[in-house]
Amino acid sequence: MEKDELDKPEFNNVLDGIPDHLKGLFSEPPFLEGEDPEHHWSLLAAFIDARKPKDVTEWIAVYDEVNMFWEERRFGRASVGSIRGEMLNALNYFLPLLKEEPDSLAAAAEVLDPSNGGLKYFSKNAKERQAIRTHLAQFGITPAEIHAKAAQLNSEPLQMFERMIATRADRRRVLRKEAKRNSKRRNNNDDVSKN
Questions:
Q1: Cα separation of 132 and 94, whole Å?
Q2: Tens of each residue's pLDDT in the chain, 195 residues
Q3: What's the gap between Cα 58 and its chain centre?
């Protein structure tokens, strides 16, 4: 671990509990914009406190489990982001349905007309946003339908994220089982050595 990494405040409490010869294993993982390193190190500290690792394999298992959990959360956020990214296309899917309703054509045009100041469905102005959403809801097009259509339009990436999340969750389960076996074995060895 680099000297400047060791001087970061978020590392201080976590590093205190890690044996000196293993601190090099716990370098800062790459964080995406919006991810808080403090949360990651707090999570690691909580795992260390819960698992109480004793040997190098247990320390590695704790580190791996934390990183897998962190990635599960990251992929979950990416999944939500991919749905949000398809919202406009989902709206475009529903708008032709509104053309069948005589009094809804003007509102349909208003939702996507860039000349009126942008996409009112996504407006920062709460009143504009609510007016459009209320109008769409009168025709059964609620945020739930739009989210569902956005998910459907983006089903392949969502399935990929879901598989990635499931893979990490399965690996974490394996690590937890292994940690329990190791802990039980260690306790049995301690009991034998006491006798």
A1: 13
A2: 444 444 455 556 677 778 888 888 887 788 999 999 989 989 999 999 998 888 888 898 898 899 889 999 999 898 998 998 888 888 888 777 766 666 655 555 555 554 443 367 888 889 988 887 887 888 788 999 999 999 999 889 888 888 998 998 888 889 888 888 877 887 777 777 776
A3: 25
Q: Look up residue 110 and give its two tokens.
A: 């208003």
For residues 72 and 7, membership in a common domain is answered with yes
Indicate the pTM of the whole model: 0.68
CA 147 to CA 85: how far, in whole Å?
A: 10
- 103 is a domain residue: yes
Indicate whether 8 and 78 sit together in one domain: yes
Number of domains in the chain: 2
69: tokens are 């959990």
- Helix 126-138 to helix 105-112 angle, to the nearest 10 degrees? 140
**One domain, residues 79 and 92:** no
Within-domain flag for 37: yes
